[in-house]
Amino acid sequence: MPSLRFSPGVTSSIISIRRASSMAPPKLNDPSLFKQNACYVNGEWRAAKSGKTFKVNDPSTGEFIGSSPEFDVADTNSAILAAADAFPSFRAKTGRERAKLLRRWFDELNANAEDIAKLITWENGKPINDAKGESAYAASFLEWFSEEAPRIYGDTINSSNPANRIITVKEPVGVCGLITPWNFPAAMITRKVAPALAAGCTVVCKAPAETPFTALALAELAHRAGIPKGVVNVVTALDNTIEIGKLLTTSPTIKKVSFTGSTGVGKILMKQSSDTLKKLSMELGGNSPFIVFDDADVDAAVAGAVVSKFRSSGQTCVCANRLYVQSSIYDQFIRKFTEAVKSFSVGNGFDEGITHGPLIHDRAIDKVDSHVRDAEKKGATITIGGQKLPNLGANFFQPTVIRDMTADMAIATEETFGPVAGVFSFDTEAEVVRLANQSDVGLAGYFFSRDISRVFRVAEALEVGMIGVNTGLISDPASPFGGVKQSGFGREGSKYGLAEFQTIKSVTFGDMGKPLQGKL
Ligand SMILES: NC(=O)c1ccc[n+]([C@@H]2O[C@H](COP(=O)([O-])OP(=O)(O)OC[C@H]3O[C@@H](n4cnc5c(N)ncnc54)[C@H](O)[C@@H]3O)[C@@H](O)[C@H]2O)c1
Ligand SMILES: O=CCCC(=O)O
């Protein structure tokens, strides 16, 4: 298919259009990883009892990729029962045994990374190099938590009663319901499943309807790694999504729900979970501020803004959404940032040299377009991009930079989730911190500065769960990932990610006698 490249010196014009090598489906090295019409339940591949399926289309071409089962409540309940049956023996394994299973899954994923990347690009649209990066990122959670599994520690605590002794034991919370989004079809799953298994939990994962095939391929690799039947179950649905969400949040068998997605859906799931008082992790939407102070290295800030804003065509929850640049370097930043965006190549993620793919669907395009039109109408200036790209396909939008943004524009308060960088100007540190914090959500925040006291001041003042200082990329299995305010609660990755799947049991030993006193 055609691709579009931005030309230096010309705003948003096409300088190269070339044909893709082939519109044919990608060839997998191992075609058996492409699981159609079957979900993974109790170690087996099962169709929906109703026989119903839903269609999955390539967001780049609109072409049909394949069908996945439309699981209903009864089908999903069988997965919950399988996870419940598997729980007692899986929790009884030692941490070292669980570590070995996770490590084998990690090895399987790495051995099949090329195929997993192809599946990601096919159903999500991101460029193949980004998809390879995601496959490695997904594997990194399996590796990280394989290393955490044997290192689960409790405490010994001094009791208030001199005759007592207290210890704590970390236990797996139980059967977990996991719901993940399409923007990282592999990594959002392993970031939940790996700590769950490390802790000794079993899981039912509801894969997103846009990207089920990556999820099902991960299940196949878990199977090959020898993960016991029922420990990992992956179900898919489109029309029955809401019913399955209700089941996962109301079933008394499920003890924990971990959700990644929008704040609106997170609130619904949290309400539904209240009757059974489930443990919850909510990784929800963001509206990240990205601040450039005038003492910053401007070139580094531009590079950081490019990666933070335009990674996955702006479809990550930690993407910069509001860029604030200090007035004395505003014009310089805009010029360099616009130049950097001109070097992007937009097109089908399988094509050579493509840096940015499509958005996931037409609703995403409509939202992006409405944000751009709103800013334009209210007086902002587009320095590059700003239009849909129908020549490439229905889901393509030009990477866009907009200057002279003001607080009344939609981008100031709403997550765009697309390739649009709205750049605001500010004068003082206090002003920009106030603006940055004027948001209901608080997932990530970024700023560039070389003043060490400002670095600490601003990092402490921003109301977000994660901060990048002089970097636009903060994702790392070693770092706790999660938000504050209406970006949710709970952390993924790191030792805190494991704790989300554990409960703490205290054991008090009475009648232990008084400590020895006097001269021994
Ligand atoms: N904080 C994070 O770690 C993180 C990561 C990725 C995406 N996100 C957020 O996700 C949003 C984009 O993803 P989206 O538009 O697909 O989000 P979404 O909330 O619409 O969907 C996310 C997942 O939830 C499922 N879902 C939707 N409604 C449901 C319901 N009523 N019951 C059960 N499941 C339901 C969907 O099928 C999908 O699998 C953005 O707001 C983004 O910031 C957050
Ligand atoms: O979109 C959310 C996840 C992004 C990441 O882990 O870097």
Number of helices: 14
Query: Could you estimate the helical fraction of the residues in percent?
Result: 25-40%
Which small molecules are bound? nicotinamide-adenine-dinucleotide, 4-oxobutanoic acid
Strand order of the largest sheet: 16-17-18-14-13-20-21
How many β-strand runs? 24
Question: What characteristic shape results from the CA principal axes?
Answer: globular
Strand count, sense and closure of the main sheet? 7 strands, mixed
Poorly predicted spans: 6-22
Q: Quote the beta fraction.
A: 15-25%
Radius of gyration, in angstroms, nearest whole number: 24 Å
Give the integer mean of the pLDDT values. 95
- Overall structural class, as computed from helix and strand content, comes to alpha/beta
Distance separating the two termini: 85 Å
Strand-helix topology:
Blueprint: E1 4-5, E2 39-41, E3 44-46, E4 53-57, E5 64-69, H1 73-92, H2 95-111, H3 113-124, H4 128-148, E6 156-158, E7 165-172, E8 175-179, H5 187-199, E9 202-207, H6 212-224, E10 232-236, H7 241-250, E11 254-260, H8 263-273, E12 279-283, E13 288-292, H9 298-310, E14 320-326, H10 330-342, E15 345-346, H11 362-377, E16 381-384, E17 400-403, E18 420-426, H12 429-437, E19 441-442, E20 444-448, H13 452-461, E21 466-469, E22 484-485, E23 488-489, H14 494-499, E24 502-509
Parallel strand pairs: 8-9, 8-11, 9-10, 11-12, 13-14, 13-20, 14-18, 17-18, 20-21
Antiparallel strand pairs: 1-15, 2-3, 4-5, 6-7, 7-24, 12-23, 16-17, 19-22
4-oxobutanoic acid binds at residues 183-184, 316-318, 475.
Textual characterization of the structure:
The protein is of the alpha/beta class. 35% of the residues lie in helices and 21% in strands. It is built from 14 helices and 24 strands. The chain has helices at 73-92, 95-111, 113-124, 128-148, 187-199, 212-224, 241-250, 263-273, 298-310, 330-342, 362-377, 429-437, 452-461, 494-499; strands spanning 4-5, 39-41, 44-46, 53-57, 64-69, 156-158, 165-172, 175-179, 202-207, 232-236, 254-260, 279-283, 288-292, 320-326, 345-346, 381-384, 400-403, 420-426, 441-442, 444-448, 466-469, 484-485, 488-489, 502-509. The longest helix has 21 residues, at 128-148. Residues 183-184, 316-318, 475 line the site of 4-oxobutanoic acid. The site of nicotinamide-adenine-dinucleotide (NAD) has 25 residues, from helix 7 and helix 8.
